[in-house]
Write a structure and sequence with these properties.
It comes from Nocardioides gansuensis. Helix content is about 50%, strand content about 0%. It has about 260 residues and is an all-alpha fold. The protein has one domain. A two-stranded antiparallel ribbon has the order 1-2. It is globular and about 70 Å long.
């Protein structure tokens, strides 16, 4: 009968009582991740549930794009209001898709498994859990739908790209405007696309299950390009997280009258 004692305390491992023999500051990385992620979650939750100060014409916060309910600020519903019956914050209709994409992301799994669940907290550091079931049981089995969230993330990225184009209008929706908000939204959507296209699922979608790359030169080129992006997937995950929050904060400050938009032309 197989032993139920597994992991670093298993019968085939050396008997080391210390949690780790590492002498470096291994705890610094998971601690930083915990603090940054927690701060973002608190900020994003506050902004999502407030339901206001998300539109400063022509800028629409990425937390509320697209705005699809009757409660949307005038001028912010570029795709109509098909969810007119929705009485809660418009952001709660949208954020489930980018949130689901990030929460099931391979990199983010590693990050928050280590930072929040200590599973394990770092390489060569014993975790406090007595057993491990992987992602085969509820709720972690839901991580397997990451690929489907990727398709939704692509749709969100397309919509945010349209928002950038519309941000080249002025407050009266006349073309020929560019402000600091326009540039921030442009940088954000570039980072969003880099994060989305560098995804492991994207790499599999464009080149997976092919027996002969030579017979599929276009998909091979796409696979090669995505593979290069994939090497920096973790960086794009962080950068795009910061840029989304920064754009939302900038638009919030504009909408509340705290600051004025810096206009270039």
């Amino acid at each position: 009968m197989a032993s139920t004692d597994a992991g670093v305390r298993g019968p085939t491992r050396a008997e080391i009582e210390e949690r780790t023999l590492r002498t470096d500051r291994w705890w610094l990385s998971p601690l930083t991740t915990f603090v940054v992620f927690s701060a973002f979650v608190v900020y994003a939750t506050w902004r999502a549930f407030t339901g206001d100060d998300y539109y400063a014409s022509p800028y629409l916060s990425p937390f509320y794009s697209p705005c699809l309910t009757d409660s949307c600020v005038e001028g912010s519903s570029d795709f109509g209001t098909p969810f007119s019956w929705w009485s809660l914050s418009p952001a709660l209709l949208i954020l489930i898709f980018p949130l689901g994409f990030r929460m099931t992301c391979y990199y983010y799994r590693k990050a928050y498994y280590r930072a929040f669940w200590l599973s394990p907290p770092a390489c060569a550091v014993a975790e406090p859990h007595g057993s491990y079931s992987g992602e085969t049981r509820f709720p972690l089995i839901l991580q397997n739908i990451h690929r489907w969230f990727w398709y939704a993330a692509v749709a969100v990225a397309v919509i945010l790209t349209i928002d950038v184009v519309l941000a080249f209008r002025n407050a009266e929706h006349e073309w020929g405007h560019m402000g600091l908000g326009t540039l921030l939204m442009l940088v954000n959507v570039v980072l969003i696309w880099l994060y989305t296209l560098s995804c492991h699922s994207c790499r599999h979608i464009v080149g997976g299950r092919l027996r002969h790359f030579s017979k599929h030169p276009v998909r091979y080129r796409l696979w090669t390009w995505v593979s290069r992006l994939n090497a920096d997937h973790a960086k794009y995950a962080w950068y795009s997280l910061f840029s989304v929050a920064l754009v939302d904060l900038y638009i919030y400050l504009l909408a509340t009258g705290t600051i004025e938009d810096v206009r270039f032309f």
